[in-house]
Amino acid sequence: MTKKLYISTYGCQMNVYDSARMADILSPLGYSLTQDPTDADMSILNTCHIREKASEKTFSELGRLRNMRRDKQSEGRGDMLIAVAGCVAQAEGDEIIKRAPYVNMVFGPQSYHKLPEMLAETARGAGQVLDTDFPVEPKFDSLPDEAIDKNLGAFLTVQEGCDKFCAFCVVPYTRGAEFSRATDDILKEARRMIANGTKEITLLGQNVNAYHGLDKNGKSRSLADLIQMLAELDGLERLRYTTSHPLEMTEDLCKAHRDVDILMPYLHLPVQAGSDRILEAMNRRHTADEYRRIIDKLRHYKPDLALSGDFIVGFPGETEAEFEDTLRLVEDVTYAQAYSFKYSPRPGTPAAGLDHEMIAEDVKSERLARLQKLLNEQQLAFNKSFEGKTVPVLLEREGRRDGQLVGRSPYMQSVYVQSPPHRIGRVAEVIIDEGNANSLRGQLSPGNAQDAA
User: Fold this and answer.
1) Can you give the pTM of this predicted structure?
2) Cβ neighbours of residue 394 under 8 Å, at least 6 residues apart?
């Protein structure tokens, strides 16, 4: 009898990948995905510890699931297993067990391959199951070959963990040390994705350009090497990778943006701040000018490369002049897209102990508003620059309007175009009529007319 599985995913693309693989693992046990938690036989919260008040939001969502379970039981519709996965589970597993005794399973991002064993323990009445170990390698070895999710654009984790220990970041404590999968395992999974209809793969890692997986001969290979290998696979049309660290932008990886046709001209390369003193306090291990030189090198090899970044404003001790250094860096680099946040302390990180240097909330809010105004202006100008140009767009799904499809440009922009639904899954040449703040709108070029009929 089919059982219903509900997974609520928070945070980064790696959590999206992990949630999909959890569904794959549970599928042979009779679980099929549902979007409705009220009727689920098992609900999993795949949590993220990066965002502000992550643990509070987790407990709030757990309270909602507990009420849904009670309603289901009282109406005679069976029971609901409740599980917490991801980085909040890893960091605060004992606290979850203590505060939410109704939760059946708590497991970290390196342990979800043990889900069948955890379910068996729960069925035996073993009480709450807690597994927050770091058995990284067995996780990938134990994942099933078949995936139930068929997507045009798919995530593929190639690297996990981080050894950088930025002062504001919990990732080294929740995801563990850097680990890279073997090239053959990655190629095998990529071939399965392509056979299932995937046209675009995004390689994932907490520090993906630190990738150093072994090939079949036991030789360590770089991310640039892996990209070259993947580019040779028949049927793969687009390739991306995220998230990268400036320290790992090697010469061969920069050249890959010039040499590999299917590597899209878009790169997410966080810098976090423009002040050298703040970068040092963050333990970023690079200066603002070193970051600028990396961008110059990338644009030397790939002049049309579009950049995305991450910024933290109001890091402990940041002065107005140091914040203005960040604005200057943004003006120098120019971004097609960016993510920016007010600093908030994460328990257990070095920066969380700098209480005496914390910036007032109103100051952080004012600085964030100024930074976002500049970033939004750059993003709009970037999108406007496409008006009148013809862009290859991978059409992914139907839009909200009749006859409308939505796709993705090489530069990660959402593109809206009038087209019949049979074009979903194809790359279409689209003439851009309008560039907006967050998307492009256009029409199929005449070259697509015959196929669009």
Assistant:
1) 0.84
2) 152, 153, 199, 200, 237, 238, 407, 408, 426, 427
Per-residue pLDDT of 128-186, as tens digits, reads 888 877 665 557 776 776 665 668 999 999 999 999 999 999 888 888 889 999 999 99
Mention every residue, 6+ apart, whose C-beta is less than 8 A from residue 381. Answer: none
Does residue 380 contact residue 334 with C-beta atoms inside 8 Å? no
Q: Are 291 and 336 in contact (CB under 8 A)?
A: no
Site of tokens 């089919």: 2
Give the pLDDT band of residue 453 (cuts 50, 70, 90). very low
CB 99, CB 63: distance < 8 Å: no
In the chain the domains, ranked by start, together with CATH numbers, are: 3-135 (3.40.50.12160), 150-264 (3.30.750.210), 266-385 (3.30.750.200), 390-452 (2.40.50.140)
Q: Spell out the residues 6+ positions from residue 46 whose beta carbon is closer than 8 angstroms to its own.
A: 7, 8, 9, 10, 11, 15, 18, 19, 22, 85, 86
Residue found under tokens 């002040």: 275
Cα 371 from Cα 277, distance rounded (Å): 19
CA–CA gap between residue 130 and residue 107 (Å, rounded): 6
Q: What is the pLDDT of residues 227-268, one digit of tens each?
A: 999 999 999 999 999 999 999 999 999 999 999 999 999 999
- Other CB atoms closer than 10 Å to residue 429's CB: what's the count? 14
